[in-house]
Design brief:
This protein is an alpha/beta fold. It has one domain: Alpha/Beta hydrolase fold, catalytic domain (Rossmann fold, 3-Layer(aba) Sandwich), CATH 3.40.50.1820. It is 40% helix and 18% strand. The protein has an eight-stranded mixed β-sheet, sandwiched between helices. Helix 2 packs across helix 3 and helix 8 packs across helix 9. The two termini are 32 Å apart. The relative contact order is 0.16.
Length: 287
């Protein structure tokens, strides 16, 4: 893998690149960075040009100050400009967690740039909005941390006191087996979130989302093929949030994995890699 930087949308983004061919962009979630795709990059890059991004605010990418800098339309513009600056007219886009939310937004705002869309364990934004604004009490309980993140300063202090403990506990909590990643992998996360301003900028995704909920119209149906992979043991997001996804996608395939949790790309990398490769190459097989 090669570490690279690129200037887009008024900021500098860091990414890791490997492979050649059709462009595949991988977008991570919270609390991660490009390293969250470590089990996918070696496999996907055998067939594709894989770019695993540090999204704005994360790891080595710029961390602009201010909650408004993390609005969903700005995050989507980052990805649109990234595709163009990489010299491509379109790309396959895959996202998990916050990366999936940004992927949904990018496909909605810039459909001409996205040839295929892969989504891991995040519902369509319109369904997430319904859950938070409606009476989905089960999802409210699961999303308690999103509300706590609205408090200034305190979340950064609480997490930053002991990053090793935070990441160990967080990944263990969301793992179906209760196991955390190996210590050397935990320390990769600790280094990334020890970057100046990293905790505030990454938590600002949640603050911006709450303040600007409903700022984008997600009712338009997407025309590109969409693959949704969902670990059914997700403790952050309910499976019921996926049931109406078809109304937002003209061409949708949904795969549920009963053995995986929120981090399906860790819990069952073999399934994720196989389904992604099948999805990427589907048009070629049909010819």
């Amino acid at each position: 893998m090669v570490s690279k930087f690129i200037d887009v949308n008024g900021i500098r983004l860091h990414y890791m690149e490997e492979g050649s061919g059709e462009l595949v962009i991988l977008l991570h979630g919270f609390p991660e960075f490009w390293f969250g795709w470590r089990k996918q990059i070696p496999v996907l890059s055998q067939h594709y040009r894989v770019v695993a991004l540090d999204m704005r605010g994360y790891n080595l990418s710029d961390k602009p100050i201010g909650i408004s800098q993390y609005k969903i339309d700005i995050l989507a513009r980052d990805i649109a400009e990234l595709i163009r600056h990489l010299g491509n007219s379109e790309a396959i886009l895959v996202g998990h967690d916050w990366g999936a939310a940004v992927a949904w937004a990018t496909a909605t705002l810039y459909p001409e740039l996205i040839s295929k869309l892969g989504i891991l364990n995040v519902p369509h934004p319109a369904e997430m909005r319904k859950a938070l604004l409606g009476l989905n009490l089960s999802q409210w309980k699961k999303s308690y941390y999103m509300f706590l993140f609205q408090i200034p300063v305190l979340p950064e202090w609480a997490i930053g006191r002991d990053l090793t403990k935070f990441f160990t506990n967080a990944f263990a909590k969301f793992s179906p087996t209760g196991d955390a990643p190996p210590e050397q992998e935990i320390q990769e996360y600790v280094r990334a979130y020890s970057q100046p301003g990293a905790l505030t900028s990454t938590i600002n995704y949640y603050r911006a989302a709450m303040r600007h909920m409903g700022s984008l119209d997600f009712s338009k149906q997407l025309s590109m093929p969409v693959l949704m992979l969902w670990g059914e043991q997700d403790k952050a997001l309910g499976k019921e949030l996926t049931y109406n996804t078809k109304q937002y996608c003209k061409d949708l395939e949904t795969v549920y994995d009963p053995a995986s949790g929120h981090f399906i790309q860790y819990d069952n990398p073999e399934l994720v890699n196989r389904k992604l490769l099948e999805f990427f190459g589907r048009d070629e097989k049909e010819k």
